[in-house]
Protein: ATP phosphoribosyltransferase
Amino acid sequence: MFDNNRVRIAMQKTGRLSSDSIKLLTCCGIKINLKQQKLIAFAENMPIDVMLVRDDDIPGLVMDGVVDLGIVGENVLEEELLKRISQKSEYSYITLRRLDFGICRLSLAIPVSTIYSDITCLKNIRIATSYPHLLKKYLDEKKIRFKSCMLNGSVEVAPRAGLADAICDLVSTGATLEANGLREVQVVYRSHACLICRTGDINHIKKEVINKLMTRIKGVIKARE
Ligand code: PRP
Ligand code: ZN
Ligand code: MG
Structure:
C-alpha cells in the first residue's frame, strides 16, 4: 500500500534529464536511495518518493493524477498536451517552475547532400519524428504539407535507411545530427526542463512538502546562476 502523505515525483530513468534531475533533488538536501532497475526510490529524510520512468510517460502520469510532481522537458509536455487536445481528453497540470537544465530544441534536419534554400523545400516530403503533433502544428502554420513517419526511437537513421527524406528531432549538442550526416534547417520548438504539478486536491501535509521543495529548488537555482 502506498502512503498518501508522501509526495510522488516522476523523473526520467535514463536519458538527457536523468542525472540533472537527480542532482537537483540531491542539491535540495534530499537523500534518495537509488537502486538499479527499480521503478521507485524513497527519500530517507523527506516524505518524497521518486518514480523513475520514461520521459514520454511523465506528462501523462501528472495529467492523470498518478503522481504529484514531474520533472520533464517542455518538448515532451507540449507534445502530450497537443495529443490530448486532438483526442479531446483531459490535460490539466500546473507548471511550478522552469528549470535551468535540459536546454534543447526540436528541429527539422535533412541529409547534408540535400539542397535547401527555404522551408518550401520541405513541401510534400516524408519526415520521421517522435513529435508528430508539434511538427504538424509548426508546418500547418507555415502552410507546408508533408507526410509523416512516426518513430519512437532511432529517428536520426531514418533518412539513411530510406524511411524518410528528413527528420524532426531534438538537438542538444548537435553531435547526433553530425554523426548521421544531417543538417539542421529549421527550429520547430525551443525547450527547457520544467517542474510540473498535478491539479486537483492535494492534502495539506503534501502541500507543505511541495512548498518546502519549491523554496529549496529556488535557492539551488539562484545559487548556480
Ligand atoms: C535526443 C535526440 C537525439 C539526441 C540529440 O534524444 O533524439 O538522439 O537527444 O542530442 P545531441 O544533439 O546532443 O546529440 P533524448 O535522449 O532526448 O531522448 P529519447 O531517448 O527519449 O529519444
Ligand atoms: Zn523519450
Ligand atoms: Mg534519442
Q: What stands out?
A: DSSP finds six helices and eleven strands in the chain.
